Amino acid sequence: MNSTAPRIGFVSLGCPKALVDSERILTRLRAEGYEISGSYEGADLVVVNTCGFIDPAVEESLDAIGEALEHNGRVIVTGCLGARAETITARHPAVLAVTGPQAYEEVMEAVHTHAPKPHDPYLDLVPAQGIRLTPRHYAYLKISEGCNHGCSFCIIPRLRGALRSRDIGEVMDEAERLVKAGVKELLVISQDTSAYGVDIKYRPGLWNGQPLQTRFIDLARALGGLGAWVRLHYVYPYPHVDEVVPLMAAGHVLPYLDIPFQHASPRILKLMRRPAHAEDTLARIRRWRETCPEITIRSTFITGFPGETEADFQLLLDWLEEAALDRVGCFTYSPVAGAAANELPDPVPAELAEERKARFMEAAARISAARLAAKVGQRMRVLVDELHPDGAIARSMGDAPEIDGVVRIAAPGPCRPGDFLDVIVTGADAYDLEAELA
Ligand code: SF4
């Protein structure tokens, strides 16, 4: 380690996609010989990777920049909020530089200018798999940037640009490196996973001499061959998604679909300008469950979208009862500066949106509890995340890290985080399971 190397502090805010950006920047910094500082005081400068998706996240990001300025004074800002430089400089004129999302080169340039890099790059300090901020046994795999849709409540396409898919060979190389480095679960993320490759017309690529198309289904199949758990996030209900469900039934990828439906009323979905808003999603869900009965379906929803009537909301509740989704998240509508939905008439009062969210989550919890109760007595494979004096916290195939439930095992025997265990489910509540070794 070079003791004269500049030390860079790093603050990472936002969603898993931003986390992947942070990991890339940290990997580059280490690759060039910089040291990473765990404190503001010990750093030569601080990089703040921000989130700008909803207004509370903007505030959190601005506060984090203020804190870094107060404790260190030399701050470079990147990430989603970086796309709105004037918002940052208006509040914090002292920042050294502002760059946008995925602007790795620009961040590095700003770091080179304000904390010139050491003469000898210590390339060998970088493990082949890069530096991950997630625990060693799972890793996020970002397959594309940006989005081609124009959902009226969202400004991601404006902040992050149009869809840009990564070459399938490059994605597979990264995934293979991660698995070789000990990763047991790959979490595939992007703004719109099922649109992977659309922008580059499914360009053919090569991986290990094997021809593949830059296409969602080819990627799922190839990832499934690596021997790790593969979990698909942010999948939209396009017709070709049906093709991936047999891969789930055959055990190639996890029987888990994270599919943001957002609403069920066709009128609201149209106002939201959602992709695939005219699909008969209930029929699709029914077919997926016929093909793969063990599938876990996770989704997120918005209550209180402008124009949402009691009838629209009731339709959503009825839809949820019939869809019986396993995992559900719900937000009340929050206007995002610059989003088209802000112009829509008939806003829903905040208290009413909250009340609908509470009713929605009550139904979702009841459904989740019933679906989990049906698992009691089943044998399943789980992945250990943490060990505590009173047992292990693990996850089943139906639980994504950080957003879903867990499986608690009181007497897990000798094991470590990242180990797979076979267990029998002994109990369930609304979100989590209890189990013992099989
Ligand atoms: S699909 Fe819609 S909500 Fe998702 S990133 Fe694109 S525009 Fe935003």
Description of the structure:
With 438 residues, the chain is α/β, with parallel strands linked by helices. Helices cover 32% and strands 22% of the residues. The protein has twelve helices and 20 strands. The chain has helices spanning 16-31, 55-71, 85-91, 104-114, 156-160, 168-180, 216-224, 244-249, 266-272, 281-291, 310-323, 350-373; strands spanning 7-12, 35-37, 45-50, 75-79, 97-98, 138-142, 144-145, 164-165, 185-189, 204-207, 210-213, 229-232, 256-258, 296-303, 327-332, 379-388, 391-395, 407-409, 420-428, 433-437. Helix 11 (310-323) runs parallel beside helix 12. The model is unreliable at 119-127 (pLDDT under 50). Bound molecules: iron/sulfur cluster. Iron/sulfur cluster is lined by residues 147, 149-151, 154, 156-157, 191-192, 275.
Descriptors:
single chain; 438 residues; 5-stranded parallel β-sheet; 5-stranded mixed barrel; 12 helices; globular; binds iron/sulfur cluster
Helix content: 25-40%
Strand content: 15-25%
How many helix segments? 12
Q: Based on helices, strands and strand pairing, what is the structural class?
A: alpha/beta
**What hetero molecules are in the model?**
iron/sulfur cluster
Instruction: Give me the side-by-side strand order of the main sheet.
Output: 2-1-3-4-5
**CA-based gyration radius:** 23 Å
- What is the overall shape? globular
The biggest sheet amounts to: 5 strands, parallel
Instruction: Report the span from N to C terminus.
Output: 46 Å
The average pLDDT score comes to 89
